[in-house]
Amino acid sequence: MSEPLLRVRNLVKSFEGRRVLDDVSFDMMPGEVLGLVGESGSGKSTTARCVARLTEPDSGRVELGGRDVLAAGRGELRSLRREMQMVFQDPYSSLNPRMTVAQLLEEPLAVHGLEPDRRRRRERAAALLETVSMSAEHLDRYPRSFSGGQRQRIAIARALAVEPRLLICDEPISSLDVSVQAQVLNLLRDLRLRLNLSILFIAHDLAVVYYLCDRIAVMEQGRLAEIGTREQVYGAPEHPYTRSLLAAVPIPDPAAERARRAAEPQY
């Protein structure tokens, strides 16, 4: 059996005296999609930011491929960030409006020293756009020229530029129209299979997480209430908080919905 790609152990984080993460621990296997769900304020995004070391936890341990993320110095952290990239919630603020798409996609290649030749960087940028079902003709346009869904595709392409092993998606579809959400979800499913990506997918929409993820981790007030396969969590939730979340959300799978209803207490 392979070793976990990501190990998170006992993460603790407080802001202004209020504990927002309380002993959070989980593993992710190579090629796995793990959904992190919960209500607003449950600690999902803080967990993601601590894993990527965009926020420093008070204590705990994060290992990526056996390497200690939290103890890494500047040089090693840059190397680790090649292996894990983030896609943020708001595609309107995550892309520099003064940069063309080509500049946005070429910048990671230059920063990490992956492609010193300018012509080849542009070719790589064009290939990245094709990976997210966009065209090379978009390279010289600015982010303002694109819809929210297109901007999020560009953000995903930028994250993929350095060929990461782990993609951390922090509610990447919550600001998009419903029809566009489905397109981005299908893109992530396809990329996971084609590139053997591991994806940590943060969301509050339980139906979305069921569609995309292999396993589900449910967060409540900074703690992991429950973690299991999507069939376990949706079909036979153990924690009362998980059951309360699921009670209000229809599951887009008739068999899972029947299993959930059969497991509910009868009064």
UniProtKB/TrEMBL annotation:
Location of the ABC transporter domain: 6-246
Gene Ontology molecular function: ATP binding
SMART domains: AAA (SM00382)
InterPro entries according to UniProt: AAA+_ATPase, ABC_transp_ATP-bind, ABC_transporter-like_ATP-bd, ABC_transporter-like_CS, Oligopep_ABC_C, P-loop_NTPase, PhnK
The UniProt record lists the keyword Ligase: no
Keyword terms of this UniProt record: ATP-binding, Nucleotide-binding, Transport
Matches recorded under PROSITE patterns: ABC_TRANSPORTER_1 (PS00211), ABC_TRANSPORTER_2 (PS50893)
Family: Belongs to the ABC transporter superfamily.
Name by which UniProt lists this protein: ATP-binding cassette domain-containing protein
